[in-house]
Design goal:
single chain; 157 residues; alpha+beta; two-stranded antiparallel ribbon; two-stranded antiparallel sheet; flat
């Protein structure tokens, strides 16, 4: 053992040279954020970065900028999905253009496309947002989720 490689006594406050070096590089915080924006979970993010989930958790502890970047990606992705789910739950409309052809003439007509409320989206929204008040109903004999309903729970007294 070289003199430089010697392990100092415990509590000396000097860094040791044990273990492997870290793979972490500052640019990885942006990679992690982008992976989170794609909807990947920690296990998948770790695999994409070529590390284990334990290492990912260590990086979150040791590198606050990495943790904040990862969390901001997750938060933004979740917010976009929640907004889309909410729109599906309550219904929405948007401007559209209808194209038609008659005797060789193409006509573009401005229209409004309407999407009615989606029961399944409403069920998920209420179940997740107000779990104490709403629960998913029983499945039918075939296990068909289409017939599941939301049943309000009686208020607790």
């Amino acid at each position: 053992m070289k003199k430089d490689d010697a392990v100092p006594e415990q509590g000396s406050g000097k860094p040791t040279k044990r273990g492997r070096g870290t793979k972490y590089r500052p640019e990885m915080k942006e990679q992690a954020r982008n992976l989170a924006l794609l909807g990947l979970i920690d296990t998948e993010i770790a695999a994409a970065l070529g590390i284990g989930e334990t290492t990912l958790n260590e990086w979150k502890k040791r590198h606050p900028e990495f943790r904040e970047s990862l969390n901001s990606g997750k938060l933004l992705a979740d917010a976009e999905v929640a907004a889309a789910l909410f729109q599906r739950a309550v219904g929405y409309s948007h401007p559209d253009t209808h194209f038609s052809a008659y005797e060789g003439t193409v006509t573009a007509t401005p229209t409004t496309k309407y999407y009615p409320p989606d029961t399944k989206a409403a069920m998920h929204w209420l179940h997740n947002r107000q779990m104490r008040l709403w629960k998913l109903g029983e499945r039918d004999d075939e296990g068909d989720t289409e017939t599941s309903v939301i049943k309000p729970k009686p208020p607790q007294t």
